[in-house]
Amino acid sequence: MLNKKLITLMNEQINKEFYSAYLYLDFANIYEEKGLLGFANWNKVQAHEEIDHGMLIYRYLQDNNAEITLMTIEAPNVKHAEAINGADIKGEKLLGLLKAALKHEEYITSLINNMYCVAQELKDYKTMQFLDWFVKEQGEEEGSLQNLLIKTQLFGSDSSGLYTIDNELAARTYMPLQ
Ligand code: FEO
Fold it and tell me: Phi, psi at residue 67, to the nearest 5°?
C-alpha cells in the first residue's frame, strides 16, 4: 500500500509529465513555423517520451491499487512564442528557447528528487527502485539539452552551422518504452 503523500505527488507528476509533452509540442510548433524542421522533430519526439513518462507513473499507481486523479493540464507558456514572434529564430531567440527547455527539465528533476526523498523517508524501497529510472532519465535529459545548448552557442550563429545542427536533430526517432 502506497503512502498517501506519495500517491498525491505521483498524481501531480503524471500531470507534470503530460504538461511537459504539451510544452515540447509548443516548442516544436514554434520551430516548425520558423522552418527549423529538425529542431521541431527533436521536440516532437521528446513530447512522445514525456507521455511515456506519465504513463509509467499511471501504471505504477494502478499496479499498487492507488487512486488516480487526473488533473487539468496547464496550457504551455506562450511567452516563448511571443518572444520570437515575427523575428528570425537565430542567435539569442533560439538560445532562449533551448534555455527555457533546460530550465523546465531542471524543475522536473527537482520534483523527481522530492518524490525520491519522500519515498526514502518512508523507507518505501519499492518506490525508490521505481524512481531510480526517472533519476537516471532526468540526468540524460538535462545532459542532452545542455549539449544542444552548447553546440548551438558554438556553431548555431551562422546559417550553415545552424543547418547542420538542424539536420542532426532531424535524425532523432521515437522509441516507445514498452
Ligand atoms: Fe519526463 Fe522531460 O522529463
Answer: -70, 135
Contacts of 163 (CB under 8 A, 6+ apart): none
Q: What are phi and psi for residue 139, nearest 5 degrees?
A: -60, -40
Per-residue pLDDT tens digits for 31-48? 998 899 999 999 999 999
Distance (Å, whole) CA 43 – CA 148: 12
Closest ligand 1 atom to 104 CA: 2
Determine whether the shortest distance from the Cβ of 50 to ligand 1 is under 6 A.
yes
C-alpha 105 to ligand 1 mean position (Å): 6
How many angstroms separate the CA atoms of 96 and 90, rounded? 10
Q: What is the pLDDT of residues 87-114, one digit of tens each?
A: 455 667 788 889 989 999 999 999 999 9
Neighbouring CB atoms inside 10 A of 168's CB total: 13
- Compute, in angstroms, the gap from residue 50 CA to the centroid of ligand 1: 5
pTM of the model: 0.93
pLDDT digits (tens, 9 = 90+) for 118-141: 999 999 999 999 999 999 999 999
**Cβ(162) to ligand 1 under 6 A?**
no
